[in-house]
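Weekly sync, protein design subgroup
Attendees: M.S., D.O., the rotation student, P.L. (late)

Item 1: inverse folding check
M.S. brought a backbone from last month's batch and wanted to see whether the design step gives back something sensible before we order anything. D.O. pointed out we never logged the input encoding, so this time it goes straight into the notes. C-alpha cells as presented (353 positions):
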C-alpha cells in the first residue's frame, strides 16, 4: 500500500513540512482549487502542486477530487462540453504524474453532517450526524445553514436543482453515470490513471435527492458498466460504514480480490441505534468498524493502492478545517502503519511456510 495524506494546497494550515514527518508518508492527495467545478485546470497550477510536493520529499499522485459538474449528473445543458473538460483534466494531471483520480457522483451536496465540532467526553471534537437534528432541517426553507454545505448556491438555484433531480430519479442518475464512465474511463485507461468513485456520504437519499453509490449491489452495478481496473472504487470505510446494511470488511475483501479498489479512505465511525453516527478515532474499539479486519482483507489480497487516514478529530487544541487537522490524522496513519506491518509480516510468514 502507499500511504497518503490529503492536503488543501497553499491555504492549508497543515504544511507539507509537517506531513512529511509522519512515518511512511509517501503520497499527497490534492486538487486545483482556483477554478470552478467543470472548468479545465491550468497546467501551471497542477505543476505547482507536483513541484511543491517533490521539494518536500512527497509525491503528488492522487487527485481528490476532479468535481463532476451538475450538468453531467443531470445530463443537460453544457454536459458535452463539461465531459470534454473532464477528459482534458485527466490528461493534464496524468502528465504531471497522477495515477489515481477520486471523484463522486452525489447530487448537489457532497457529504452531510449536522455538526462539525461535537465535543466528546475526552474533550476532542468531531463531525457527527444526528437524525434528530437532521429531521428539523430543510435546505429549501429559509437560510441554508447545514455545516459544510456549499453556501454559494442561491435559494432559487437550489430549488431548481432539487426539482431537476426529483424528476431525474435514481435510474436517470444511473444513465448519466453510465455516459460519464463510458466517455471518461477509456481516456483514464489510456493515460495510466485509475478513476476511483467515492461512495455517497451517508449512503442513502438525503432530502429526497437520489443517491446510488451506496451499497454492494450498486457498487457491483457501477463496476460492471465499464469492466476495467481504470473504473475502480475509493472504498471509504466511514461513508459506507455509517449504514448498518454495509459489511465493510466483507466488501473490502470482495473488491480487493477483484482488484477494483484504487484508493482506501480508512476511518472509524460509531453507529447509533437510530442511524445517527459520530466520527471517532481510528482505533477499532473507538467505533463500530473492525480496522484490523479491514487491513487484513487488503493485505490478504495483495492490495497495492493508496491509503489515507480519512477525517480525524480535533485534538490537543488544534484548530483548522473540520476533519482535516494534522494530529489525529497523523495518529490514524501511524495506527494504520502498525496494522499493515503486522498483517504483511503474517502474510509473508504464511507464504514462506
Ligand atoms: Mn472518504
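Designed sequence read out in the meeting:
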Amino acid at each position: 500500500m502507499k500511504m497518503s495524506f490529503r492536503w488543501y494546497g497553499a491555504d492549508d494550515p497543515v504544511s507539507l513540512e509537517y506531513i512529511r514527518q509522519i512515518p511512511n508518508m509517501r503520497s499527497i492527495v490534492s486538487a486545483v482549487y482556483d477554478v470552478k467545478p467543470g472548468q479545465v485546470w491550468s497546467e501551471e497550477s497542477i505543476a505547482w502542486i507536483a513541484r511543491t510536493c517533490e521539494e518536500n520529499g512527497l509525491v503528488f499522485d492522487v487527485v481528490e477530487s476532479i468535481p463532476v459538474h451538475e450538468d453531467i449528473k443531470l445530463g443537460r445543458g453544457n454536459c458535452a462540453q463539461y465531459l470534454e473538460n473532464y477528459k482534458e483534466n485527466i490528461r493534464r494531471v496524468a502528465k504531471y504524474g497522477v495515477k489515481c483520480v477520486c471523484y463522486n457522483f452525489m447530487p448537489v451536496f457532497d457529504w452531510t453532517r449536522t455538526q462539525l465540532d461535537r465535543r466528546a467526553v475526552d474533550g476532542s471534537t468531531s463531525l457527527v450526524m444526528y437524525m434528530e437534528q437532521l429531521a428539523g432541517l430543510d435546505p429549501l426553507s429559509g437560510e441554508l445553514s447545514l455545516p459544510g454545505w456549499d453556501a454559494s448556491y442561491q435559494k432559487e438555484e437550489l430549488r431548481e436543482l432539487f426539482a431537476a433531480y426529483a424528476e431525474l430519479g435514481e435510474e436517470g442518475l444511473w444513465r448519466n453515470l453510465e455516459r460519464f464512465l463510458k466517455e471518461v474511463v477509456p481516456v483514464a485507461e489510456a493515460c495510466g490513471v485509475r478513476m476511483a468513485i467515492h461512495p455517497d456520504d451517508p449512503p442513502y437519499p438525503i432530502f429526497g435527492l437520489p443517491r446510488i453509490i451506496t451499497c454492494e449491489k450498486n457498487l457491483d452495478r457501477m463496476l460492471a458498466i465499464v469492466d476495467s481496473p481504470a473504473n475502480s472504487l475509493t472504498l471509504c470505510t466511514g461513508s459506507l460504514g455509517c449504514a448498518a446494511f454495509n459489511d465493510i470488511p466483507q466488501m473490502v475483501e470482495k473488491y480487493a480480490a477483484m482488484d477494483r479498489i484504487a484508493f482506501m479512505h480508512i476511518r472509524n465511525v460509531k453507529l447509533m441505534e437510530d442511524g445517527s453516527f459520530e466520527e471517532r478515532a481510528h482505533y477499532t474499539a473507538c467505533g463500530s468498524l473492525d480496522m484490523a479486519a479491514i487491513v487484513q482483507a487488503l493485505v490478504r489480497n495483495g492490495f497495492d493502492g493508496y491509503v489515507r487516514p480519512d477525517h480525524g478529530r480535533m485534538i490537543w487544541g488544534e484548530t483548522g478545517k473540520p476533519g482535516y487537522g494534522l494530529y489525529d490524522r497523523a495518529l490514524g496513519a501511524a495506527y494504520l502503519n502498525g496494522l499493515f506491518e503486522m498483517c504483511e509480516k503474517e502474510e509473508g510468514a504464511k507464504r514462506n511456510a
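Discussion: The mean pLDDT is 93. Residues 198, 236, 239, 265, 310 surround manganese (II) ion (CB under 6 Å).
Action: P.L. to compare against the previous round before Friday.
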